[in-house]
Amino acid sequence: MEDLYRIWQDTGLYNFEPGQAAMLGVGLLLIYLAIQKGFEPLLLLPIGFGAVLSNIPVAGIAEDGGILYFLYAGIKSGVFPLLIFLGLGSMTDFGPMLANPKTLLLGAAAQFGIFGTLFGALALNAVPGLHFTFKDAAAIAIIGGADGPTAIYVASRLAPDLLGAIAVAAYSYMALVPLIQPPIMRALTSREERLIEMSQLRVVSKREKMVFPVVLIVLTAMLLPSAAPLIGMFCLGNLMRESGVVDRLSKTAQNELINVVTIFLGLSVGSKLSASAFLRTETLGILLLGAIAFSIGTAAGVLMAKLMNRFTKAQVNPLIGAAGVSAVPMSARVANKIGQEENPHNFLLMHAMGPNVAGVIGSAVAAGVLLALVR
């Protein structure tokens, strides 16, 4: 009987705690949303499964010596987010942005959500039970850039204990772009503005596309070195794509490398969704602030486009300003969809890709600024 009791003590049923059961439910919910609803499946599925694995009692999968513990070293060191940026750069076409450089302003404006949320997080300290340091607030604020790898990179540097909640919030709101952005876009624009047709973009030469990533990393190195790791890997991937001399490397970065790293990144983030780390009052605050950050970023991009129209002859459809958040390419597709609802012959996708790509650069720059501020 003693042996049977000892075996019973080693089972998961005996060691289950209410918090672990709740987090298993969270993990299964993420898996359901990824499979059934198609919400960012490439990351929500491994994150959800990582949450399930890390909350299995006794197994110690996410503890010292477990596989998820060792995988997390890739996030702690910053390697995984940087490799994701390498892959993203190799898949990115800067052509639409270079063809219409004004869209850089739209990508920059969308980053207001980040800095607005920074102060919002600090203001939440007035709420009993909530306490965010300046580092915590900076890590939470980056959710507004709608850039998952950047959010993970900054959180791993500034607030590793909040990494799970920040990552889940960032990718959840990215997945909800088609639900969150359209009401804001419609509320801030008139029908006449949504009907604006933009002229066809000029053809960008191969030389321009090759020179741009080199110029970008040089400027970053001189002006904001703290953003150099993210922007540097992004530029390297893009240069491999545009140079045409390392197709094997470019295709590897676009496919095998980014796929493998995405699996490891998702599982590592899931390892931080333990009951003790996630089931806290601060988590609710992070989820709320993430929604506010994303909404502010969307609104700022639209309003910047409206402002630009007051000073330029070539009118910009304000809908493409919402693509300034760096949820590539989903927010650009949403802008195109809303535009075509008003005019089926109005094609905004390529125009929206300009601020969309600019938003990726903008969120990396904003991350560099935040990292520099808290040193």
TrEMBL record:
Any one GO molecular function term: decarboxylation-driven active transmembrane transporter activity
Cofactor(s) this protein cannot do without: Na(+)
Top enzyme class: translocase
Catalysis performed (reactions): oxaloacetate + 2 Na(+)(in) + H(+) = pyruvate + 2 Na(+)(out) + CO2
Keyword set, alphabetical order: Cell membrane, Ion transport, Membrane, Sodium, Sodium transport, Translocase, Transmembrane, Transmembrane helix, Transport
Membrane topology: Multi-pass membrane protein
Top-rank taxon, per record: Bacteria
Keyword Translocase in annotation: yes
GO cellular component: plasma membrane
Main location: membrane
Keyword Nucleus: no
UniProt subunit comment: Heterotrimer of an alpha, a beta and a gamma subunit.
Protein name: Oxaloacetate decarboxylase beta chain
